[in-house]
Design brief:
The complex is a heterodimer.
Chain A: E1 3-5, E2 9-13, E3 18-25, E4 29-37, E5 44-49, E6 53-57, E7 60-65, E8 70-75, E9 84-94, E10 97-102, E11 106-111
Parallel strand pairs in A: 2-11
Antiparallel strand pairs in A: 1-3, 3-8, 4-5, 4-9, 6-7, 7-8, 9-10, 9-11
Chain B: E1 4-7, E2 10-13, E3 19-25, E4 31-38, E5 42-51, E6 54-57, E7 64-66, E8 76-78, E9 87-94, E10 103-104, E11 108-112
Parallel strand pairs in B: 2-11
Antiparallel strand pairs in B: 1-3, 3-8, 4-5, 4-9, 5-6, 7-8, 9-10, 9-11
Classes of the chains: A mainly beta, B mainly beta.
């Protein structure tokens, strides 16, 4: 079966660094996405990793280790507007399917 | 550029009624998806479509029907609504291809009484 785990909630202080972990056990792995979702809004794309290593995009970075089934999203210089849920999603591709499987999301609260 | 839209944005219905949620995208994306989002479950895939007239089941398809006669539209029908189908429904679309991300519509909040 497909299983994706991430912490339910995290808290951090404005200006700090936070790391949100995601572990997965899936068949047909073909990449890992991170999305941000503010309360009452739709998810928006943050990053995509298909090869091992670190992808950096401004204050946000994402890391993938395919051998360990592990990814993390690193948020630096936290701002109040970063308070949101962060969704880890694995792309599963087989001969007859190509879809994303989502984790339950990590709700991040940033305090002043 | 309208992108991806959903209608209605809010809907209240009663148990046993048929409800159709609409999804429309203007990008000519080949793939379209329907998810439901519930507390404690995250986003769960209901149905998806790789192209017009091609649809496939996701994780939680029971009680739902989809069709895709045109590339830009992907309606989701609850044939006989149940209280357990109270949820937020998101439609998404993307191009075919390995590096393409999904773009989500604004969501439809459905309450079944």
């Amino acid at each position: 079966g497909q299983n994706i785990d991430q912490p339910t909630e995290m808290t951090a202080t404005e200006g700090a660094i936070v790391q949100i972990n995601c572990t997965y056990q899936t068949s047909g792995f073909n990449g890992l996405f991170w999305y941000q979702q503010h309360a009452g809004e739709a998810p928006t794309f943050l990053s995509y990793n298909v090869l091992d290593g670190l992808e950096e995009k401004g204050r946000f970075s994402s890391f993938l280790s395919r051998s360990k089934g592990y990814s993390y999203l690193l948020l630096k210089e936290l701002q109040m507007k970063d308070s949101a849920s962060y969704l880890c999603a694995v792309r599963v591709s087989t001969y007859n399917t190509d879809k994303l499987i989502f984790g339950t999301g990590t709700r991040l609260q940033v305090f002043p | 550029d309208a992108g991806i839209t959903q209608s209605p944005r809010y809907k209240i219905t009663e148990t046993g009624r048929q409800v159709t949620l609409m999804c429309h995208q203007t990008w000519s994306h080949s793939y379209m998806f329907w998810y439901r989002q519930d507390l404690g479950h995250g986003l769960r895939l209901i149905y998806y479509s790789a192209a017009a007239d091609i649809t496939d089941k996701g994780e939680v398809p029971d009680g739902y029907v989809v069709s895709r006669s045109k590339t830009e539209n992907f309606p989701l029908t609850l044939e006989s609504a149940t209280r357990s189908q109270t949820s937020v429904y998101f439609c998404a679309s993307r191009l075919a291809g390995g590096l393409e991300t999904q773009y989500f519509g604004p969501g439809t909040r459905l309450l079944v009484l």
